[in-house]
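S2.1 Query sequence (Pseudouridine synthase I TruA alpha/beta domain-containing protein)
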Amino acid sequence: MENSDTKLTISSPTLPPPPPQASAEEPEAKKLKISTTTDDKECTTVTGTKIRYKRRKIAIFFAYCGVGYQGMQKNPGAKTIEGDLEEALYASGAVPEHDRGIPNRYDWSRSARTDKGVSAVGQVVSGRFYIDPPGFVDRLNSNLSPQIRIFGYKRVTGSYNAKKFCDRRRYVYLIPVFALDPCSHQDRETEKGNKVIGLVGNVKSNLKVEAVDVEAGISSNRNGALNSEVKEDVEVLVDNVNSKNDIDTVVPVQDEGTPLNGGSVNSSTILEEEKVNGVDRATKESKFSYGEKERERFNRILKYYVGTHNFHNFTTRTKAEDPAANRFIISFDASTTVLVDGMEFVKCEIVGQSFMLHQIRKMMGLAVAVMRNCAPESLITNALQKDVNIHVPTAPEVGLYLDECFFTSYNDKWKDSHEELSMKEYAKEAEEFKMKYIYSHIASTEHKDGTVALWLQSLNHRNYPDLHFVDEEAINDNKTGQVEVVTE
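Output C-alpha cells follow.
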C-alpha cells in the first residue's frame, strides 16, 4: 500500500465535516515534497516481534573483487555479484519474502555492469529497501563474502535510478610496465608455428584471412578492404590527472590462505624457457623503463580513443549500424605508475559516459599492440571507422576495475534537499579494500600465472592478421598474395 508523507486532515466527531475546498487542496499540498518512502509494512525482527517499518529509496556504495564471479549482472546458473548481493539483502531483512528474486518489485538498478573477473571500487546500486532498524550496513556485510564490501548508503529521490542518473564512469586498467616493452615476452609463434589457443578474442575481420573465433567456437572468413584515412590527434579532457612523476607504492596485505582466484593455471611449462634464475630472460636483458619518452608515446596512442567514435570493432554482438556502437570517451590517461608486490604497473584511467562489453579491454589490447610495434598507430584510426571490420586483441580481464561512478547532474539538481552522491565519504575504506583485494590479486596473479605474459605471446600476426595492414596499398598487395608486414 503506497504511503505518503503528506499530512491528512482528520475531522473531529463533534465538528461538521470540512468544506469541499479543503479536500480539493490536498493534491496541491502533496506536490510540495517528493516522497522517498513506500510500503509501510510489518517486518519480523530477529527476536520474532513484529515492527512496522517503511521502505526507503537509497543508493548503496560498495566494492568487490571480481575473481571467481561471472560478472556483475545476475545471470541464471552463474555466480554473480548481483546474485550474492540480492541474497544478502533478503537475509538482512531489506527485501521481504514475496519480493525475493524479483528485483523489479523493489526498483533495482545498477550504475555499471562489469564483465567476468572484473572488479570494482566505486559501484553503486539503488532500490527501495527496509533499512531499519539501525545497523543496515553491518547486517549486509555479515551476509556477504569478504570479497564484497558495503561502504554505506545515501537517501535519494523517489525517481532516482542508479543507471540513468550516472553521468559518467571511470575505469582503471593496471598494465605491467614490461607489457609495453617490445623486447619483453616476445612472440613465440615463430618457434612453434601454431596459434596460442584460448587467448584470442572475437574475430571481426573483413580481410581475406581466417582466424579462430574462440568465444563463438567457429572460424570466420571474410573479404573487404580497410579505410586508410589517418586521423589527427584529438584534444583530450583529463579529470584529476596525477603528476607525471607520481609513483605509488602499494603494500599488499591480503590474508594468507586460499587464494582469491581459487587456484591457478599451470603455465610453468610455457614460461620456464623464458626464465633465468627466476627472472625473465627478455626482462633481464632489456633496459626498458616507463620514462618520459615512453609515457608521452603511450598517452599519444590512448588519445586516439578520446571523443565520440564508433566502437563496433571494440565489442561483440554490436553492429556498426547500431546507434549503441557510438560512445563518447572523455579522457584516457596513463601518467601514473604504481608498485605492487615488487612489480611496476602503469595506471591507465579512462573516463566515459558508458562502455560496451569488452570495450575497454579491446581498447587496451590494441593500444598495447601499437606500443609493442605489432601495429601502427594509424590502425586505431581505421578501427574506429564505421565501414571497417577488423580483429582487435582483447587484454586480460584481471587488470581492469571500475573506479568510480559520477552523478554530477543529479547532485546539482538536488543539492539543497539530498545528500551528495559520491565516494568522498568512503575514500579511505575504498582505498584499503583496493589495496587488500584488487591490487594484490592483480600482482599475485601475474607473479603466479603470468596471465599478461602469456597474452603478450599471442600478440602476433597469425592470431591477429589485421595488425599487418596499414593502408590500401598493403591491402592490394595482400589481394595479390603479397603480404606487406609493417614494423616500426
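Residues 427-449 form the longest helix (23 residues). The chain has a mean pLDDT of 77.
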